[in-house]
Protein backbone atom coordinates (compact mmCIF):
# COMPACT_ATOMS: atom_id res chain seq x y z
CA UNK A 1 0.00 0.00 0.00
CA UNK A 2 1.51 3.33 -1.09
CA UNK A 3 1.66 6.05 1.59
CA UNK A 4 0.83 9.72 0.94
CA UNK A 5 4.56 10.44 0.94
CA UNK A 6 5.16 7.70 -1.69
CA UNK A 7 2.47 9.25 -3.91
CA UNK A 8 3.84 12.76 -3.47
CA UNK A 9 7.36 11.67 -4.37
CA UNK A 10 5.97 9.79 -7.35
CA UNK A 11 3.97 12.77 -8.61
CA UNK A 12 6.98 15.09 -8.26
CA UNK A 13 9.51 12.78 -9.87
CA UNK A 14 9.31 14.65 -13.22
CA UNK A 15 10.83 17.75 -11.58
CA UNK A 16 14.40 16.39 -11.43
CA UNK A 17 13.82 14.20 -14.47
CA UNK A 18 12.75 17.03 -16.79
CA UNK A 19 15.51 19.26 -15.39
CA UNK A 20 18.07 16.61 -16.35
CA UNK A 21 16.49 16.32 -19.79
CA UNK A 22 16.77 20.12 -20.32
CA UNK A 23 20.43 19.87 -19.28
CA UNK A 24 21.06 17.21 -21.98
CA UNK A 25 19.28 19.33 -24.62
CA UNK A 26 21.58 22.23 -23.66
CA UNK A 27 24.64 19.96 -23.80
CA UNK A 28 23.66 18.69 -27.26
CA UNK A 29 23.22 22.30 -28.37
CA UNK A 30 26.69 23.25 -27.13
CA UNK A 31 28.21 20.26 -28.95
CA UNK A 32 26.21 20.70 -32.17
CA UNK A 33 25.02 24.35 -32.31
CA UNK A 34 23.85 24.22 -35.94
CA UNK A 35 22.09 20.87 -35.79
CA UNK A 36 18.76 22.19 -34.42
CA UNK A 37 18.50 24.28 -37.59
CA UNK A 38 19.74 21.72 -40.10
CA UNK A 39 18.26 18.48 -38.67
CA UNK A 40 16.06 18.86 -35.61
CA UNK A 41 15.27 15.11 -35.44
CA UNK A 42 18.96 14.29 -35.26
CA UNK A 43 19.44 16.98 -32.60
CA UNK A 44 16.65 15.47 -30.47
CA UNK A 45 18.14 12.00 -30.99
CA UNK A 46 21.55 13.16 -29.75
CA UNK A 47 20.06 14.93 -26.72
CA UNK A 48 18.06 11.82 -25.75
CA UNK A 49 21.06 9.53 -26.34
CA UNK A 50 23.22 11.68 -24.04
CA UNK A 51 20.65 11.30 -21.28
CA UNK A 52 20.06 7.60 -21.91
CA UNK A 53 23.74 6.63 -22.00
CA UNK A 54 24.10 8.24 -18.57
CA UNK A 55 20.86 7.16 -16.90
CA UNK A 56 19.48 4.24 -18.97
CA UNK A 57 20.91 1.62 -16.61
CA UNK A 58 19.35 3.30 -13.57
CA UNK A 59 15.95 3.50 -15.32
CA UNK A 60 16.19 -0.15 -16.33
CA UNK A 61 16.60 -1.07 -12.67
CA UNK A 62 13.21 0.56 -11.99
CA UNK A 63 11.44 -1.72 -14.50
CA UNK A 64 8.75 -3.95 -12.92
CA UNK A 65 10.59 -7.17 -11.95
CA UNK A 66 7.94 -9.44 -13.57
CA UNK A 67 9.56 -8.75 -16.96
CA UNK A 68 12.64 -10.81 -15.97
CA UNK A 69 10.54 -13.95 -15.53
CA UNK A 70 8.88 -13.39 -18.92
CA UNK A 71 12.16 -12.84 -20.77
CA UNK A 72 13.75 -15.87 -19.10
CA UNK A 73 11.22 -17.91 -21.13
CA UNK A 74 12.09 -16.25 -24.46
CA UNK A 75 13.00 -18.55 -27.32
CA UNK A 76 13.27 -18.67 -31.10
CA UNK A 77 13.49 -15.61 -33.33
CA UNK A 78 12.71 -12.37 -31.48
CA UNK A 79 12.02 -8.76 -32.44
CA UNK A 80 13.21 -6.40 -29.69
CA UNK A 81 11.55 -3.02 -30.24
CA UNK A 82 13.33 0.14 -29.01
CA UNK A 83 16.04 -1.57 -26.93
CA UNK A 84 17.92 1.70 -26.33
CA UNK A 85 21.44 0.96 -25.13
CA UNK A 86 20.52 -2.64 -24.25
CA UNK A 87 20.09 -2.18 -20.51
CA UNK A 88 17.33 -4.81 -20.42
CA UNK A 89 19.21 -7.48 -22.40
CA UNK A 90 20.53 -9.29 -19.32
CA UNK A 91 16.91 -10.32 -18.65
CA UNK A 92 17.09 -12.71 -21.64
CA UNK A 93 18.72 -15.03 -19.14
CA UNK A 94 18.49 -18.25 -21.19
CA UNK A 95 20.32 -17.19 -24.40
CA UNK A 96 20.80 -20.84 -25.42
CA UNK A 97 17.03 -20.97 -26.21
CA UNK A 98 17.23 -17.94 -28.48
CA UNK A 99 17.93 -18.36 -32.19
CA UNK A 100 18.33 -14.66 -33.03
CA UNK A 101 17.20 -11.24 -31.79
CA UNK A 102 16.62 -8.29 -34.12
CA UNK A 103 16.82 -5.04 -32.16
CA UNK A 104 14.94 -2.21 -33.88
CA UNK A 105 16.45 1.00 -32.50
CA UNK A 106 16.19 4.39 -34.30
CA UNK A 107 18.68 6.06 -31.95
CA UNK A 108 21.89 5.51 -33.91
CA UNK A 109 24.04 7.10 -31.17
CA UNK A 110 23.00 4.19 -28.92
CA UNK A 111 23.97 1.42 -31.34
CA UNK A 112 27.57 0.89 -30.20
CA UNK A 113 26.51 0.55 -26.58
CA UNK A 114 23.63 -1.72 -27.62
CA UNK A 115 26.06 -4.10 -29.39
CA UNK A 116 28.40 -3.96 -26.41
CA UNK A 117 25.53 -4.81 -24.02
CA UNK A 118 24.49 -7.76 -26.23
CA UNK A 119 28.07 -9.06 -26.17
CA UNK A 120 28.28 -8.77 -22.37
CA UNK A 121 25.23 -11.01 -21.84
CA UNK A 122 26.22 -13.74 -24.29
CA UNK A 123 24.01 -12.54 -27.16
CA UNK A 124 26.82 -11.03 -29.24
CA UNK A 125 26.50 -13.38 -32.24
CA UNK A 126 22.72 -13.57 -32.04
CA UNK A 127 21.86 -9.89 -31.66
CA UNK A 128 21.34 -7.88 -34.87
CA UNK A 129 21.00 -4.11 -34.51
CA UNK A 130 18.58 -2.57 -36.99
CA UNK A 131 18.37 1.17 -37.50
CA UNK A 132 14.61 1.62 -37.81
CA UNK A 133 11.43 2.70 -36.09
CA UNK A 134 8.55 0.40 -35.14
CA UNK A 135 6.92 0.74 -38.55
CA UNK A 136 6.83 -1.87 -41.28
CA UNK A 137 8.24 0.47 -43.96
CA UNK A 138 11.20 1.16 -41.74
CA UNK A 139 11.77 -2.35 -40.31
CA UNK A 140 11.60 -4.39 -43.52
CA UNK A 141 14.65 -2.91 -45.29
CA UNK A 142 16.59 -3.51 -42.07
CA UNK A 143 15.52 -7.15 -41.95
CA UNK A 144 16.53 -7.61 -45.59
CA UNK A 145 19.92 -6.06 -44.82
CA UNK A 146 20.31 -8.33 -41.78
CA UNK A 147 19.54 -11.38 -43.97
CA UNK A 148 16.28 -12.48 -42.30
CA UNK A 149 14.26 -11.65 -45.41
CA UNK A 150 14.93 -11.60 -49.13
CA UNK A 151 13.84 -8.42 -50.93
CA UNK A 152 11.41 -10.40 -53.15
CA UNK A 153 9.63 -11.63 -49.99
CA UNK A 154 8.66 -8.07 -49.11
CA UNK A 155 5.93 -7.78 -51.74
CA UNK A 156 2.99 -8.63 -49.40
CA UNK A 157 4.42 -7.47 -46.10
CA UNK A 158 1.28 -6.97 -43.95
CA UNK A 159 1.31 -10.50 -42.57
CA UNK A 160 4.87 -11.77 -42.79
CA UNK A 161 4.65 -13.70 -39.49
CA UNK A 162 8.40 -13.84 -38.98
CA UNK A 163 8.88 -13.75 -35.22
CA UNK A 164 8.22 -16.16 -32.37
CA UNK A 165 8.21 -13.24 -30.00
CA UNK A 166 8.02 -9.45 -30.06
CA UNK A 167 9.27 -7.55 -27.01
CA UNK A 168 8.24 -3.98 -26.20
CA UNK A 169 9.67 -2.46 -23.04
CA UNK A 170 8.83 1.22 -22.51
CA UNK A 171 8.75 2.00 -26.21
CA UNK A 172 5.08 2.08 -27.29
CA UNK A 173 4.66 5.19 -25.12
CA UNK A 174 6.81 7.05 -27.66
CA UNK A 175 5.95 5.75 -31.13
CA UNK A 176 4.24 8.52 -33.13
CA UNK A 177 1.20 6.41 -34.14
CA UNK A 178 0.46 3.74 -31.54
CA UNK A 179 -2.25 1.82 -33.43
CA UNK A 180 -0.32 1.76 -36.67
CA UNK A 181 2.88 0.50 -35.00
CA UNK A 182 0.98 -2.13 -33.01
CA UNK A 183 -0.75 -3.32 -36.21
CA UNK A 184 2.59 -3.52 -38.06
CA UNK A 185 4.23 -5.45 -35.22
CA UNK A 186 1.23 -7.76 -34.86
CA UNK A 187 1.54 -8.74 -38.55
CA UNK A 188 5.19 -9.68 -37.96
CA UNK A 189 4.29 -12.12 -35.17
CA UNK A 190 3.82 -15.82 -35.97
CA UNK A 191 0.54 -17.53 -35.02
CA UNK A 192 0.98 -18.71 -31.43
CA UNK A 193 3.74 -16.13 -30.95
CA UNK A 194 4.20 -14.07 -27.77
CA UNK A 195 3.79 -10.29 -27.64
CA UNK A 196 5.71 -9.45 -24.43
CA UNK A 197 4.99 -5.98 -23.08
CA UNK A 198 6.15 -3.85 -20.21
CA UNK A 199 4.78 -0.39 -20.90
CA UNK A 200 3.85 2.57 -18.77
CA UNK A 201 0.27 3.59 -19.49
CA UNK A 202 -2.58 5.93 -18.64
CA UNK A 203 -3.62 5.33 -15.05
CA UNK A 204 -7.35 4.71 -15.08
CA UNK A 205 -7.29 3.11 -11.62
CA UNK A 206 -6.19 6.21 -9.68
CA UNK A 207 -7.92 9.51 -10.42
CA UNK A 208 -5.16 11.48 -8.66
CA UNK A 209 -2.37 9.79 -10.65
CA UNK A 210 -4.36 10.26 -13.84
CA UNK A 211 -4.71 14.01 -13.17
CA UNK A 212 -1.01 14.24 -12.42
CA UNK A 213 -0.20 12.46 -15.69
CA UNK A 214 -2.32 15.01 -17.56
CA UNK A 215 -0.65 17.88 -15.71
CA UNK A 216 2.88 16.77 -16.67
CA UNK A 217 1.79 16.24 -20.26
CA UNK A 218 0.59 19.87 -20.32
CA UNK A 219 3.86 21.06 -18.82
CA UNK A 220 5.84 19.56 -21.73
CA UNK A 221 6.73 15.97 -20.82
CA UNK A 222 6.27 14.74 -24.39
CA UNK A 223 8.48 17.42 -25.92
CA UNK A 224 11.30 16.91 -23.44
CA UNK A 225 11.06 13.11 -23.33
CA UNK A 226 11.50 12.17 -26.97
CA UNK A 227 7.78 11.96 -27.80
CA UNK A 228 6.86 9.81 -24.76
CA UNK A 229 3.20 10.09 -23.67
CA UNK A 230 2.01 9.32 -20.14
CA UNK A 231 -1.66 8.90 -21.03
CA UNK A 232 -1.77 6.10 -23.60
CA UNK A 233 -4.16 3.18 -23.37
CA UNK A 234 -1.69 0.77 -24.93
CA UNK A 235 -3.46 -2.45 -23.95
CA UNK A 236 -6.70 -1.25 -25.52
CA UNK A 237 -4.88 -0.48 -28.79
CA UNK A 238 -3.34 -3.97 -28.81
CA UNK A 239 -6.64 -5.68 -28.09
CA UNK A 240 -8.38 -3.70 -30.83
CA UNK A 241 -5.75 -4.59 -33.44
CA UNK A 242 -5.93 -8.32 -32.60
CA UNK A 243 -9.71 -8.15 -32.58
CA UNK A 244 -9.83 -6.59 -36.02
CA UNK A 245 -7.35 -9.03 -37.53
CA UNK A 246 -8.12 -12.35 -35.82
CA UNK A 247 -11.08 -11.79 -33.49
CA UNK A 248 -8.74 -11.26 -30.52
CA UNK A 249 -5.66 -12.82 -28.94
CA UNK A 250 -5.62 -16.50 -27.99
CA UNK A 251 -4.54 -15.58 -24.46
CA UNK A 252 -4.13 -12.30 -22.58
CA UNK A 253 -2.03 -12.46 -19.42
CA UNK A 254 -1.50 -8.84 -18.46
CA UNK A 255 -1.20 -7.23 -15.02
CA UNK A 256 -1.21 -3.56 -14.15
CA UNK A 257 1.43 -2.81 -11.50
CA UNK A 258 2.06 0.23 -9.29
CA UNK A 259 -1.57 1.27 -9.59
CA UNK A 260 -1.04 4.36 -7.41
CA UNK A 261 1.74 5.69 -9.64
CA UNK A 262 1.79 8.16 -12.51
CA UNK A 263 4.25 5.67 -14.07
CA UNK A 264 1.97 2.66 -13.72
CA UNK A 265 2.91 -0.25 -16.01
CA UNK A 266 1.17 -3.06 -17.81
CA UNK A 267 3.34 -6.17 -17.82
CA UNK A 268 2.68 -9.53 -19.40
CA UNK A 269 2.15 -11.60 -22.52
CA UNK A 270 -0.47 -11.56 -25.25
CA UNK A 271 -0.44 -14.74 -27.30
CA UNK A 272 -1.49 -14.57 -30.95
CA UNK A 273 -4.12 -17.01 -32.25
C1 LIG B 1 12.52 4.88 -22.84
S1 LIG B 1 13.64 4.17 -23.94
C2 LIG B 1 13.57 2.47 -23.44
C3 LIG B 1 14.77 1.67 -23.85
C4 LIG B 1 14.75 0.21 -23.42
N1 LIG B 1 13.59 -0.47 -23.95
C5 LIG B 1 14.78 0.12 -21.91
O1 LIG B 1 13.74 -0.17 -21.32
O2 LIG B 1 15.87 0.32 -21.35
C6 LIG B 1 12.70 4.16 -25.46
C7 LIG B 1 13.50 3.67 -26.64
O3 LIG B 1 12.63 3.60 -27.77
C8 LIG B 1 13.29 4.13 -28.90
N2 LIG B 1 12.28 4.66 -29.82
C9 LIG B 1 11.76 5.91 -29.90
N3 LIG B 1 10.87 6.00 -30.90
C10 LIG B 1 10.81 4.78 -31.47
C11 LIG B 1 10.09 4.25 -32.57
N4 LIG B 1 9.22 5.01 -33.27
N5 LIG B 1 10.29 2.97 -32.90
C12 LIG B 1 11.16 2.19 -32.19
N6 LIG B 1 11.87 2.65 -31.15
C13 LIG B 1 11.70 3.92 -30.78
C14 LIG B 1 14.18 5.22 -28.32
O4 LIG B 1 15.24 5.55 -29.20
C15 LIG B 1 14.63 4.58 -27.03
O5 LIG B 1 15.80 3.84 -27.20
**Quaternary:** single chain
Q: If helices are DSSP runs of H or I spanning 4 or more residues, what is the number of helices?
A: 11
One letter per element, helices H and strands E, the order comes to: HHHHHEEHEHEHEHHHEE
Mean of residue pLDDT values: 95
CATH homologous superfamily caption of the largest domain:
Vaccinia Virus protein VP39
Could you tell me the CATH topology label of the largest domain: Rossmann fold
CATH architecture of the largest domain: 3-Layer(aba) Sandwich
Q: Structural class of the helices, strands and pairings?
A: alpha/beta
How would you sum up the major sheet? Answer: 7 strands, mixed
Distinct compounds present: S-adenosylmethionine
Strands side by side in the biggest sheet: 3-2-1-4-5-7-6
Unreliable segments of 5+ consecutive residues? none
CATH class assignment of the largest domain: Alpha Beta
Number of domains: 2
Rg over C-alpha atoms, rounded to the nearest angstrom: 18 Å
Total number of beta strands:
7
> Gap between N and C termini, in Å?
37 Å
Percent helix among the residues?
A: 40-55%
Instruction: Tell me what portion of residues adopts beta-strand conformation.
Output: 15-25%
How does this structure look, described?
The chain has 273 residues and is of the alpha/beta class. The protein has two domains: 4-61, no CATH class; 64-204 and 210-220 and 223-272, Vaccinia Virus protein VP39 (Rossmann fold), CATH 3.40.50. The protein has eleven helices and seven strands. It has helices spanning 4-12, 14-31, 35-38, 40-61, 66-72, 111-120, 136-146, 178-188, 207-219, 221-224, 234-246; strands spanning 76-81, 98-104, 127-130, 163-169, 189-200, 251-257, 265-271. The chain has a seven-stranded mixed β-sheet with strand order 3-2-1-4-5-7-6. Helix 2 crosses helix 4 and helix 8 crosses helix 11. The mean pLDDT is 95. The structure holds S-adenosylmethionine.
